[in-house]
Write a structure and sequence with these properties.
The structure holds two protein chains of two kinds.
Chain A: H1 3-34, H2 38-43, H3 56-97, H4 103-112, H5 119-131, H6 138-162, H7 166-174, H8 179-190, H9 192-207, H10 211-216, H11 225-235, H12 240-260, H13 262-270
Chain B: H1 13-49, E1 52-53, E2 62-63, H2 67-73, H3 76-108, H4 114-122, H5 129-139, H6 146-153, H7 168-193, H8 197-205, H9 210-239, H10 242-247, H11 259-268, H12 273-304
Antiparallel strand pairs in B: 1-2
Helix pairs in contact in B: 1-12, 3-7, 3-9, 7-9, 9-12, 11-12
The chains are: A mainly alpha, B mainly alpha.
């Protein structure tokens, strides 16, 4: 290796390690602090590895209601994602494979939702859920969550559905299949990769959703995780290790999902961004 | 692209069309219903409410025409917020996107431990913004926070990051960069995988060095990704809310106010829902204009047939 190459190689590693410290240090601080006793945190707040590990804060925040927030987030996320998958696949079928007069405008109408600032819908949805009598229930989140998951889901699904060979459909038609049968037997089974993409994308989006939860929920026992974390901040202002334990636990499901299924998660999160 | 279903054995045209129409209707209906009730209707309502004075608690609204819009145009906080949103756009385009590109380039160069780096670089993007906000509040803590500890090790004074109006915006922007650069990194990585290796081989044979290869092969191939990243950055910056709400709530003294936090405060803290609707309507209009400009530029670019 000549000197110039060596210098280049060193610069590359300096860059790689600087980026590593920038991205990873806050995580190490979070997990490290969550495992410290209060005494140790105050005596030595910035050491990454604690002298003595303690899991007391993890048990404490679970007792403080984290499990409830967790369950609420799980219920609303799973219901909204399942509903989105069904509704978006149904709509994507005619939008991608049948020609009718309003095909293109309808598709654009749905997809335009991706560009929309959520704020433009907040007050009317706040009023609407009160009129419907579902304000301050998990059910209040379901409508907005599904509605705001639809644009990207329809966008991704229609692109996948367009690529299914025509012959498959024609063969089914000759056998006398109607649209509903074609959808169920031909289209739906052929877009499973796209389905997992939209499941992951919407799961991450809804698991971390904050503003709708903030304006539609007030009772503590009904809150989702992001809102629950905000409560913990008020209560644990001084107990930093406790707060860090809560944040770590709340982030765990998505971090685990990523570590288990890295490639799918990346595909899911980039979603339609690349083609769009 | 779109395939009309017209096999030889199908029933007469009119009958088929009617049947198709009904089928299409039932397939699209659920999505259209949800979308209409929770997106379309609310947007129209927002514009309707924006013409009223209304506290959101009592049912009666007073129609005041465009008064709220006149107030908005004279509202210094609104302009401050818009300016902060614009700053967010600039930082996204000129810091996050380049940083994401650098991260992707590092992961494409011969470094040891690439797989691990790949995972670690990407982690910030996976956390909820609320969790990120809370984590960084303590990173910035004036007394026990590691950032100020580090400053003091190097002989600098501690900075009250989030309480100082002059630095609070910078402090939050650093967090936003931390959170979103990995997203652009994966967009670039995906695009770089698609560049044919033969191009680099041919360039090497012709004696092109690394820098020339970057500027003549890699960068031109990434232009579409840079364009779509910029679109996402503009649209995403208008939607921003969580991180500002959690970390500073728009303070100190409006230094980190953005349109999202301002609209929320007007509506749900001050209970001037009419005026908040006007701010929301302005956000919608601004987003609409941005998207229209981007589409137009995109169209021109494609028409000239360069760099596409």
């Amino acid at each position: 290796m000549n000197p110039l190459q060596l210098v280049k190689r060193i610069m590359l590693y300096v860059l790689a390690v600087s980026l590593l410290l920038f991205t990873f240090y806050p995580f190490m601080y979070m997990v490290g602090t969550s495992l410290k006793s209060m005494d140790e945190f105050f005596n030595n707040p910035y050491a990454i590895v604690p002298d003595t590990f303690t899991f007391e804060h993890y048990f404490a925040v679970v007792d403080m209601g984290l499990a409830g927030y967790f369950l609420n987030s799980l219920i609303i996320t799973v219901s909204a994602v399942s509903l989105t998958v069904v509704i978006a696949s149904l709509a994507s079928y005619p939008l991608s494979r049948l020609s009718f007069r309003f095909n293109r405008p309808l598709f654009l109408l749905f997809v335009a939702g991706m560009m929309l600032p959520i704020h433009a819908t907040l007050i009317p949805i706040f009023v609407l859920t009160q009129e419907m009598g579902i304000y301050d229930t998990l059910l209040a989140l379901l409508g907005p969550y599904v509605a705001f998951s639809l644009p990207i889901s329809i966008f991704i699904l229609t692109q996948f559905m367009q690529e299914i060979p025509k012959e498959l459909e024609e063969a089914a038609q000759i056998d006398g299949a109607n649209h509903w049968t074609i959808f169920r037997k031909v289209i739906f089974p052929n877009v499973t990769p796209a389905l997992s993409t939209i499941v992951i994308y919407n799961f991450v989006f809804l698991w971390t959703e904050f503003i709708f939860a903030l304006i539609l929920l007030t009772t503590r026992s009904k809150m989702t995780l992001p809102l629950g974390l905000q409560n913990f901040y008020g209560e644990l202002m001084i107990n930093v290790p406790g707060l860090m334990a809560a944040i770590t636990l709340a982030s765990l499901p998505i971090l685990l999902l990523f570590i288990i299924a890295q490639e799918r998660v990346v595909k899911g999160l980039t979603g339609g961004a690349l083609k769009g | 692209m779109k395939t009309a279903v017209q096999p030889e054995t199908s029933p007469p045209l009119t009958q088929r069309k009617a049947k198709n129409g009904r089928t299409i209707f039932f397939f699209v209906l659920p999505a259209l219903l949800v979308y209409s009730v929770f997106i379309l209707y609310p947007i129209f309502s927002t514009f309707y409410y924006s013409l009223h004075e209304w506290n959101g608690v009592q049912p009666q609204r007073t129609f005041i025409g465009l008064d709220n819009y006149v107030t908005l145009l004279k509202d210094a906080t609104f302009w401050q917020a818009l300016q902060n949103n614009s700053l967010l756009v600039l930082v996204s385009v000129f810091v996050q996107i380049p940083l994401g590109l650098i991260m992707a380039l590092v992961l494409f160069s011969p470094v040891i431990g690439k797989r691990l780096l790949n995972v670690i670089y990407f982690l910030p993007y996976l956390m909820s913004t609320v969790a990120i906000g809370l984590l960084w509040i303590f990173m910035y803590d004036p007394i026990n926070g590691p950032i100020n500890q580090l400053l003091q090790v190097f002989g600098f004074d501690a900075i009250p990051w989030l309480a100082d109006a002059n630095v609070a915006m910078i402090a939050i922007l650093i967090v936003v960069i931390w959170q979103f650069s990995p997203f652009y990194m994966i967009l670039f990585k995906a695009a770089m995988v698609g560049i044919p290796n033969e191009l680099y081989e041919a360039a090497s044979i012709d004696g092109a060095n690394g820098r020339q290869q970057f500027f003549y092969i890699t960068l031109p191939a990434l232009v579409p990704t840079i364009v779509s990243s910029s679109v996402l950055a503009v649209v995403g910056s208008l939607k921003a809310f969580d991180i500002f709400y959690i970390m500073t709530g728009g303070g100190p003294g409006g230094a980190t106010e953005i349109l999202g936090t301002y609209m929320y405060k007007q509506g749900f803290i001050q209970f001037s829902m009419g005026y908040a609707s006007t701010v929301a309507a302005a956000m919608f209009i601004i987003a609409f204009i941005c998207v229209a400009i981007i589409q137009f530029v995109e169209y021109q670019r494609k028409k000239r047939g360069i760099l596409s």
